[in-house]
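Q&A log
Question type: sequence-to-structure
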Amino acid sequence: MPAGDRYAGDVRADVAEATALGARGVPFSVVDRRCGVAGAQRAEQLLAVLEQAWSERVPPVPVPAGGTADACGPDGCAL
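Response status: OK
Response body:
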């Protein structure tokens, strides 16, 4: 593979992800890899998007101290 094509696959994946989020031009901002904001926006609008994304985040599951044997996964802990 030529050196210039080293990241071609990664670039294609980024383009596909941006297109799926609604990117049609620049500027385009992505928040939390799931919220897309097209065009130049006022600071207040960007703050609203950030606050919404933050409020919708799933809180991290704490990992017990002393090892990972009893650690919880991304879907919670087995009961």
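Response note: Helices lie at 8-20, 43-56.
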